[in-house]
Amino acid sequence: MLTDDELVRGFEEGSLDDFPHASHVRVALVYLARYGHAEALSRLLQGLLRFATAKGHPEKFHVTMTRAWLDFIDAARLAHPGLSPASLVDACPELLDRNALSRFYTPERLHSDEARTGWVPPDLAEIGRI
Question: Is the pTM of this model over 0.85?
Answer without folding.
Answer: yes
